[in-house]
Write a structure and sequence with these properties.
Low-confidence stretches: 103-148
Strand content: 15-25%
Number of strands: 14
Helix content: 25-40%
Distance between the termini: 142 Å
Mean pLDDT: 77
Amino acid sequence: MKKHKKNSYYSFMFFPEGQGSPFTLRIHRYTMYLTVMSMVLIFAGLLVLLFKTGEISLKLQLVHDLRQENRRLREHSKDLEISSQKIASIDSLTTYLHRLASVTDIAGAPVPVAAPGTASPGASIVDRSKPGQPVVQTEADRPSDDRPDVKAPPPVIPPALAARRATPAPPEYIESIPNIMPVDGWITKHFRRDPADGHHGVDIAAASGSPIRVTAKGVVEDVSTDKYFGLIVEVRHDNGFVTRYGHCSQVLVLPGDRVNRGQTIALVGNTGRSTAPHLHYEVIKAGKYVDPMSFIGAHRQ
């Protein structure tokens, strides 16, 4: 029996409309198979590409959403930081008011609070030995030698010292002495000269944004930033005095400006290494740190 060999070609006949003769297109069967397989692979590749494109689009959308969420979280973090600073300021002010309310006379009535660096007649004496804890000493608590009914012998004053005290200091000298409180607040840390645990100034707690006053007339020497004391203003005065004001939130003067005693030069802040808004105040005399409180109220006019 004779075997019939399969045809190796496929014939396609095309009949044009209208005029024209029909023609035949012969394609080898292997070519036909390759064409079909190529079309299948191209279609599969398009499907895979479409799927990957959709996956990439989803990932890009996710990245965009994450960026938006990160931006919202940063804004929320800034709002929380601002709220925390406001709460800290309110807490500081509340503590200050409580401490002021705790200063009472012997009858239980509140003692009028005088302006910084001044004293009113008959006012109670505040013990500054404990920072931030004012202790009242009334007339009844004073030693018997200070009472009016006990006559103490008058102190013996050398004539040279008496003449020196009788001679008033010149106004220029008085104006150059840092003898007023630089800010309205309460002292939380006093001056210490100990080399092992020294504190070369006083810390005065006050609400953030409170005005800082220069304590004597002089010239603004420098405005700088320190990693410990934050934003600092340094003022040079006559007679070898230099004062420094640290942890400022804003400085209102420039180097070279002339300032008068009591002029606002900066605002209280929390810059540098600080846990709450306060002023770090230093006084330097002839190149050496001195206790600022030893000048407060001295030589006032």
